[in-house]
Amino acid sequence: MTDQDLGPVDRGYWTNNDRENAEDAATAFVNALRRLQADFDDIGIEEPCVACNHPLHKVSLGSISVVEAEQFASRINRRLDELDALTEGAAPPTAPGRGPKRRPHMSVGAMNPPRRSIGATALVRNGGGAVLLVKTADRDEWQLPGCGAHQGERVATAASRELAEETGLHRRLTHFLALDHVPASTSAEGKSSAEGFTIVCDGGRLTPEEESALAVPEDAADGIAALKCVPLARLGDYTSPPQERRIRAAMSALDKGLRLPLLVLGT
């Protein structure tokens, strides 16, 4: 997948002009991808193969890496979040001279919160035990990487997705350390937040190479202002009191070996 030169294509994108229906379908598909600023290098058209039991041309995506799949899913979900905001009557914020602002950290159901939400976060430490925090662009506050799970999305998948979107780190998350009940609330500005649960997943340790390369991903630059590994002794200087208590409880569970599996229907 690449962000470079993703303008619309035409029928000349394909080398064989005698497969009109397949070319039309494949061209429409590539252009739909490029509207999402996404593309796959190995996309192509497969010839009919009677022996393979597909007598018609097929549009093939080829081989898609895990990183490509994660980036593509992230971009689709971001566009859907923006569409949700528009249909709920609030256009995504814009900056002068730019298109719609990217919103990788937009809360699920922010404009019309669900009755109960699920927050999926990841606790990642460096070699010295400092905790990786992200600073969101719209608040002067630091927190664990993560946000709300999409409807039907597994907690492990949501936490892994958010961690990748906000920090560029790719982890397969299998266990959690803490579950924090968050009551419904209304801010001084009248903004309502649904009751929910925030689950802190074990994101493991940073390698020295990962820590030295930490940087806000380009796609998250409008939503995430900074990344920082913060020692436990200084958590209170960065986070809100509830966030600090949540992180300390998760760290205590980790120190005691109290990791619990993230299960779906018992497995």
Question: What would you note in describing this structure?
Answer:
The chain is 28% helix and 22% strand. It is an alpha+beta fold and 267 residues long. Strand 4 and strand 5 form a beta hairpin. The radius of gyration is 21 Å and the shape is elongated.
Strand content: 15-25%
Would you tell me the overall average pLDDT? 80
**SSE order:** HEEHEEEEHEEEEHEHHE
Poorly predicted ranges: 90-107
Helices, strands, pairings?
Elements: H1 20-35, E1 44-46, E2 58-60, H2 66-87, E3 116-125, E4 131-136, E5 142-143, E6 146-148, H3 155-167, E7 175-182, E8 185-186, E9 192-193, E10 195-205, H4 208-212, E11 224-230, H5 235-238, H6 241-255, E12 260-261
Parallel strand pairs: 3-10
Antiparallel strand pairs: 1-2, 3-6, 4-5, 4-11, 7-10, 7-12, 8-9
Summed up, what is this model?
The protein has helices spanning 20-35, 66-87, 155-167, 208-212, 235-238, 241-255, and strands spanning 44-46, 58-60, 116-125, 131-136, 142-143, 146-148, 175-182, 185-186, 192-193, 195-205, 224-230, 260-261. It is of the alpha+beta class and 267 residues long.
